[in-house]
Write a structure and sequence with these properties.
Elements lengths: L3 H15 L5 H9 L7 H16 L1 H7 L9 H14 L15 H11 L3 H4 L4 H11 L3 H8 L5 E5 L6 H10 L4 E3 L6 E4 L9 H4 L3 E3 L2 H10 L6 E4 L6 H9 L5 E6 L2 H14 L4 E5 L4 H4 L5 E7 L20 H18 L3 E11 L8 H8 L5 E9 L9 E8 L2
Parallel strand pairs: 5-6, 5-8, 6-7, 8-9
Antiparallel strand pairs: 1-3, 1-4, 2-3, 9-11, 10-11
Helix pairs in contact: 1-2, 1-3, 4-6, 12-13
């Protein structure tokens, strides 16, 4: 049932992202903490509806005639009704502020659905760019990026097992299934405030997509190694690597953002991990001092994020074509600079959460045409159209010596 609070929170949450520019996941984490833990259904409606509106935002705004504008209260009311009618599966009994002309809106929507960029709610430039790269396969990729993703757990193998967590979820009547390809991944098939679960607070799992976990597994780290996560952020893959190393050896987590590294350190303490050291990249000296130091360097590069748009639908409206050009240049600079930290005989891994060849295969080929002492030994593309996982690209080189 759509109560007054749920109704307003959905609109407030969406507007905080659309109008004010906040990240959707941060908005919802903050908002949902104010709900009682017992109000699971209410929290689910708010979370799924905010993400659902974002997933279909361009089509919805254009259908009600306010694309590119800030809708007023009446228009917001119409937009939420339209989302619930066409995409939501929640009870709509509510005293709405307005009564839309559904015949007119249905006709407008029908016309817009003929245009691929509206059908999948992406910017025109993204549609044109993606079709140039993918041709007829572009449609299936877009369809997969519009799917509602499962929440995916990465089991902390330092403290528990996947089967243990699976059984705990079963007792809580939370439906889940084991990922067939990634042995640390559990897919949760019902929206759940996972951060409330005792197992999360005890550090027994993190939330991490199965495709992302494939990147960590691709690095093939071993206990006792010296590893660098060169673009660590808040540390999802860093923590995965530490667990795979059984807390033995050393991981340097580098990033230009000290706040994110502080969040990583906090997550590591919760997970019982003690072989991670964080360092802020505040000058080129940090990289120079680590020359020939690491057995494995992971460059999980900043990218368009196009592979994770189903999970972060607001991101597809934030990127401009000129941003992609700058990202490509940054990726090249990181590859050239950070490969120096790999010791002779060591491994360099480059990864993105992008579906665009310009950030993936084309970067791989560009890098190999530079004067480098590395040989490619493996590569992999995880398509979002291949199953319930985000899109990722990864490539691995071995340094001579």
């Amino acid at each position: 049932m759509l109560t007054d609070q749920i109704y307003q929170d959905v609109l407030d949450g969406w507007m905080a992202v659309y109008r004010d520019g906040y990240l959707a996941d941060k908005v919802l984490q903050r908002m949902l903490k104010d709900y009682p833990r017992t109000a699971r259904m209410a929290r689910e409606i708010v979370a799924q509806s905010v993400y659902g509106i974002l997933r279909h935002q361009r089509l919805l705004l254009a259908t009600i005639g306010v694309e590119g504008e800030i809708p007023d209260d009446k228009e917001q009311d119409t937009l939420l009704q339209a989302y619930l009618k066409w995409y939501g599966d929640y009870d709509q009994r509510y005293h709405w502020r307005s009564r839309p002309d559904w015949h007119f809106l249905e006709q407008e929507r029908k016309k817009l659905l003929e245009i691929r960029a509206y059908r999948f709610s992406i910017p025109d430039w993204v549609d044109a760019y993606g079709y140039r790269n993918w041709g007829d396969a572009w449609e299936s990729i877009l369809a997969s990026l519009q799917q509602i993703p499962h929440q995916v757990l990465r089991i902390n193998t330092l403290t528990t097992t996947r089967e243990t967590i699976f059984q705990q979820l079963k007792k809580l009547e939370i439906p889940a299934h084991r990922d067939a390809q990634v042995e640390t991944a559990l897919h949760v098939r019902q929206w759940t405030p996972l951060w409330d679960l005792p197992a999360f607070k005890q550090g027994n799992f993190e939330v991490q997509d199965a495709g992302s976990q494939q990147v960590g597994a691709f690095c093939h780290v071993q206990p006792g190694m010296r590893v660098i996560d060169a673009c660590a952020g808040s540390g999802g893959k860093t923590l995965q690597l530490a667990a795979a190393m059984n807390n033995k050896g050393k991981i340097l987590a580098l990033d230009t953002d000290g706040v994110k590294l502080e969040a990583l350190a906090k997550r590591a303490r919760r997970a019982g991990i003690h072989n991670i050291e964080t360092r802020v990249i505040d000058s080129t000296k940090v990289i120079k001092k680590l020359r020939d130091w690491a057995d494995i360097v992971l460059v999980d590069a900043p990218c368009s994020g196009s592979g994770v748009w189903r999970r972060n639908p607001d991101a597809k409206y934030r990127i401009e074509e000129e941003d992609l050009d700058q990202l490509i240049q940054t990726q090249r600079e990181l590859l050239v600079s950070y490969q120096r930290m790999v010791k002779p005989g060591g491994i360099l891994v480059y990864a993105t959460c992008s579906i665009f060849p310009a950030e993936n295969e084309e970067q791989m080929n560009w890098f190999e045409n530079q004067s480098i002492q590395l040989s490619r030994i493996d590569q992999q593309f995880v398509s979002p159209a291949s199953g319930d996982r985000d899109g990722f690209f990864m490539v691995k080189w071995k340094k001579e010596g």
